[in-house]
Specification:
about 130 residues, 4 strands
């Protein structure tokens, strides 16, 4: 795999095995900290339906299974669910936080008007914004 370098250096080629050897311990460390925090907060056994992981990292092969093993609860990958073709490009776990915050903010608008999903609506503008970024 080609891995970008920092400081203007050219990208390096690394095998998946080497890259996994670097990334897996960090992910395990983060998940262990999450599990401890859940335990301290009294939520370790409260989530009988399990947990949902989102974001780009959740797309890593084996991440939900690793999280399940470390946290000791069922874990699944989550993604935004937006009806219609406007929402389709935003249906990746990568956009879960941004879409969730936008939808939450839209629900909090004065007047409580529903979200407009047409070509001039919020979701269309979000899709254009994310498309411009990437």
């Amino acid at each position: 795999m080609e891995v970008p370098s920092v400081g203007g250096r050219k990208p390096r080629q690394l095998s998946r095995q080497v890259l996994a050897g670097i990334i897996q311990p960090r992910v395990e460390e983060i998940l262990t900290l999450v599990g401890r925090s859940l335990g301290r907060a009294g939520f370790q056994d409260a989530a009988t339906a399990g947990f949902v992981v989102t974001g780009g990292t959740s797309l890593m092969e084996g991440l939900p299974e690793l999280a399940e093993r470390i946290i000791g609860q069922p874990v699944r990958r989550g993604a935004p669910s937006i009806a219609g073709s406007v929402g389709e490009p935003l249906s990746s776990p990568i956009y879960a936080t941004g879409v969730g915050l936008a939808l939450h903010g839209a629900k909090q608008r004065p007047g409580g008007r529903p979200i407009d999903v047409n070509e001039r609506g919020l979701l269309h503008r979000l899709r254009r914004h994310f498309a411009d970024l990437f």
